[in-house]
Amino acid sequence: MSASLSSIDTPALLLEPGRMDANIARMRTHLAALGVQMRPHVKTSKSIDATRRLFDNGTGSITVSTLREARYFFEHGLTDILYGVAIAPNRFAQAAELIRAGARLKLVLDSAETAALLADYARTHAQSFDVLLEIDCDGHRSGLPPTSPLIVEIARTLRAGGIDVQGVMTHAGNSYDSRSTDDILRYARQERDAVVVAAQGLRDAGFAAPIVSVGSTPTALFADDLTGVTEVRAGVFVFFDLVMAGLGVCRQTDIAVSVLTSVIGHQPEKGWTIVDAGWMALSRDRGTAAQAVDQGYGVVCDVDGKPLDDLIVIGANQEHGIVARRDHATQHAHGPHLPVGTPLRILPNHACATSAQHAGYHVLDGQRVTDYWPRISGW
Amino acid sequence: MSASLSSIDTPALLLEPGRMDANIARMRTHLAALGVQMRPHVKTSKSIDATRRLFDNGTGSITVSTLREARYFFEHGLTDILYGVAIAPNRFAQAAELIRAGARLKLVLDSAETAALLADYARTHAQSFDVLLEIDCDGHRSGLPPTSPLIVEIARTLRAGGIDVQGVMTHAGNSYDSRSTDDILRYARQERDAVVVAAQGLRDAGFAAPIVSVGSTPTALFADDLTGVTEVRAGVFVFFDLVMAGLGVCRQTDIAVSVLTSVIGHQPEKGWTIVDAGWMALSRDRGTAAQAVDQGYGVVCDVDGKPLDDLIVIGANQEHGIVARRDHATQHAHGPHLPVGTPLRILPNHACATSAQHAGYHVLDGQRVTDYWPRISGW
Known about the structure:
6-stranded antiparallel barrel; homodimer; TIM Barrel
């Protein structure tokens, strides 16, 4: 297929594969220099086409956020899959089914309750599982403290069910709130130290723990030493977004996804341009709100992707976006007149959230749409 | 079909049809007493099954937020459709196609530029359109000021293209920010006055303007006099949500949709329960953040729908929700221990946004799921 951008109904999600490939190359080069494997998180793209571009031969180890993703990527030939969310007891049977079908599925848990239930399930169903224990490196969400005695206790509970713990994993979620690249480096070291200490605790107690897994895009790109870590699970680097640009992790010109929109009206007295991308197309994510530069619901670019005169989306209803100058609140500053029908592109705050509002990617080659890559959704 | 709630994979969107029917009956009774027609906005449910329940005989006049919705509902037999977002020039051909297929489609615009382009299109293609002019009643988004000379000027531009303006419409979006039901009543009067004045201006200039359309759930339910108004386009009342409950427009027990989730872990020192409903299942909507009671990402209920001990979702990542007591910030207040696997239900801040994260509704009869109603999505 090849179609002009003007023939695409708006709003629509656009993807620039050249930018994506450069982002992937940057991460691969950096991690190769640190001597660790990449296990990218495919929850950002949820696309088999984008995921194949992560690997030399189109396949490799991945991380997923749902068992729906696990099934989908397994059906497309990717077998080494880490399901990165603590397994719920009501999903044991689904996980077992994937493993019996041939997936090298790795489950995560951080709960003695879950471990006991999984060990029971494994015994009852004569079904083994590969399990990583989730470690908390920064207090942002889930995981066991790195030196918690529960780590070895849970590993023993699992072993009693015939499950040998494969290692530990953590996610430095707080790195998204960094104020400087020095902050990010500190989070990267903290993330590494947490899993290395936890893995050592397991080994001291007689568990091999071959996998030591970390992962967030900021820490992956700013880590200077990952000794003791075996793999990195970053995800959003594939596309990047305004939150990452605000952290200094990428430039706005690295952002590979944008939302194509059309001008549908104006409020001239206010300097507002109304577009047909509201929160349904952009998502409600306001990840830049707490950063030094608040980008509203996204940075407004011309149809070639060039940022326009300090314009951002200052407000969003379901199918309406309000475009205005970033300084709208403090002065009566009008932007350029953009006639109705003008196509614009919006850079997203959060690539995972914005992409999730769309069924797929219109893949660009310059101003031509040359492919469509579907996304999966749901659970 | 009939399945127990425990057999549904989580997270999942649940719908209580009894509550929905009561919400619909309340709106119908109120509007009937005021002597106006209902043209419900189906962007909330995006479901033909839910939409049929709005009408005695399963069909009636509707409002949509995308032409995708217009096509879908037209294919299901609903022909009188108001497309409530200003028409973009790149969508004229799609609109014309629907009209030629038999839809009584009504378009909206507020721009002299769009009017000139539509008049040109109508002449060139010998295709008439039904058009309403959008009026701005509160400065929140789009629309012309009610006494703007542009209203008549645009009507004349359209007439020159063979298009007779059918009337005016407005949406009191600011009513969502009301602080009291007195505020809502004031917004309702302001909304009515804006369109009645604008319609009179058109009639004085020789345009019949038979349609005078208002619509927001708060103003629709608190309006005490809609003299001069012919129809009301409310939408979210079908399901209601925490934003509406916070405004005093409904009770929490009227909310007809919720997200079923499972407990997947704990951070006992913090009093946190981790669930498998993150922003992917709940949306990033934080509509209650500016209300008197901030409900986080939603109110946590037991599996029967009864709110639990002041628990809310205080944080959300893509597939993780963090459940804690509402007062977590100010005291070390632990909630009940909810074992892993416990099913919970989350009431949404914003029914339109949360429902949009799901492919359909699991329809409840008590604790049994007796039906599945698909949603449409995209553009």
